[in-house]
Write a structure and sequence with these properties.
The protein has 144 residues and is an alpha+beta fold. The chain is built from 4 helices and 3 strands. The chain is globular, with a radius of gyration of 16 Å. 25% of the residues are buried. Bound molecules: heme C. The site of heme C has 26 residues, from helix 1 and helix 2.
Length: 144
């Protein structure tokens, strides 16, 4: 087997680690344990758990996007697509896994509730704090 240089992106690898081979132009997804992050920092959680697919700035252009069947949505237009109001409640239910994102086939977006629970020592209060700080961070990314 040919060995090829792997350009992994540290910091962006949460559930999904992305390795792009320079020669083969392919992106490979590896599912890894989510790192523990500070529940107080929406941006740190976003960078570790979400940016690999949704992109650093939320535009849906993360390095893992190419390896997915469904394009990760642009998260900077959540408000625009909801009459100008950031849909905090909807994002909360999506992250808790209460809202299904795809009616048919596989949802590619990981269900975050159990992941957040495991990196929060199973404390519901900390899970709520994580979701609330991620919401604040996502709200700050909204396009005007
Ligand atoms: C493995 C790639 C991947 C990761 C990591 C990921 N997402 Fe997603 N996300 C998707 C995809 C793909 C969709 C579209 C639905 C589907 O096909 O599953 C989506 C949909 C969404 C939606 C619905 C958007 C809309 O327009 O309705 C929100 C909100 C969202 N993701 C937030 C997040 C947050 C917050 C994180 C980090 C905690 C995250 N995602 C991590 C791939 C990902």
């Amino acid at each position: 087997m040919k060995t090829f240089q792997k350009l992994c992106v540290p910091g962006l690898l949460a559930m999904v680690a992305v390795c792009t081979s320079a020669q083969q132009q392919s992106t490979e997804l590896k599912h890894e344990a989510a790192p523990v992050t500070s529940a107080a920092s929406g941006s740190e959680m976003y960078k570790n758990y979400c940016a690999s697919c949704h992109g650093k700035g939320g535009k849906g252009d993360g390095p893992a996007a190419a390896a997915l069947k469904a394009a990760p949505p642009d998260l900077t237009t959540l408000a625009k697509r909801n009459d100008g109001k950031y849909p905090a409640q909807k994002v909360t239910s999506i992250l808790q896994g209460k809202e299904k994102l795809v009616a048919h086939g596989d949802q590619e977006m990981p269900v975050w509730g159990p992941v957040f629970s495991s990196v929060s020592g199973r404390s519901e209060g900390i899970v709520d704090l994580r979701i609330s700080n991620l919401n604040k961070f996502l709200e700050s990314l909204q396009a005007k």
